[in-house]
Amino acid sequence: MRKNFKNLLIAGALVLAVVFASCAGRKEAGKVLSIGATPVPHAELLNLVKDDLAAAGITLKVVEFTDYVQPNVAVQAGDLDANFFQHIPYLESNDEWASKLRSAFGVHVEPFGLYSEKFKDINEMPDGASIAIPNDPSNGGRALLLLQSNGLIRLKNGSGLTATPRDITSNPKNLRFQELEAAQLPRSLQDVDAATINGNYALEAGFNPIRDSLIIEGAESPYVNIIVVQKGKENDPKITALKNALLSQKVKDFINSRYNGGVAAVF
Length: 267
What we know:
By secondary structure, the chain is α/β, with parallel strands linked by helices. The protein folds into 2 domains: 31-110 and 223-265, Periplasmic binding protein-like II (D-Maltodextrin-Binding Protein, domain 2, 3-Layer(aba) Sandwich), CATH 3.40.190; 113-216, D-Maltodextrin-Binding Protein, domain 2 (3-Layer(aba) Sandwich), CATH 3.40.190.10. 41% of the residues lie in helices and 22% in strands. It is built from 12 helices and 13 strands. The strands form 3 sheets. Strands 2-1-3-12-4-13 form a 6-stranded mixed β-sheet, with helices on both faces. A 5-stranded mixed β-sheet has the order 9-6-10-5-11. It has a two-stranded antiparallel sheet with strand order 7-8. The longest helix is centred in the first third of the chain and has 28 residues, at 2-29.
């Protein structure tokens, strides 16, 4: 009888140990904030504030992506807590993302520019020049609006942020457009006369957007890069801690010294 009672005590202790370990594991998991980000500048900025979040009891896990689709898929599925790579027009270009994901806060703007390895000035562009632009609706429209603002094309009224080459009503230089995935645009420069490139990919390719672009967006750009979370989690304590860390003078000073105008803080 005493032996059986002793065995029951041991079994009970083991069960309690498992329960406590499970609870501790869940508690520890709750301190982890996992964020998907493209490498430059997003992952760099996140890694900059890792220690600040650690001081708040949060372990920041940064998962790097090189495309613009999988980070939203991962947050939507709950595999990541948030992502940091996009602007609101891109988020809203997909109905499912727009219905299930939300912007928690904005951090910076990456000026969008036109680059060329063949020409140093926009006026050197020949008639019939080939221009590569992003193939996703929001960034493709952004490229065309940039070209329109510099007098290279004209778009029909009301075409807006999701304009496509079909919306071009005037094309004096007979520019020819190739639509490619945004990440491929820097590599396309060998095959086209010029390419419109998102700021993060331009930085990764070694360009200084202010110095190296033929034309570039002005400070009025509406394309603020945002932290994106699942709908309803915009005010999660971990996201609030991240906001406090990212929207700091430390991060602003880093942006100003690191990117030479290729990234502009919005706070």
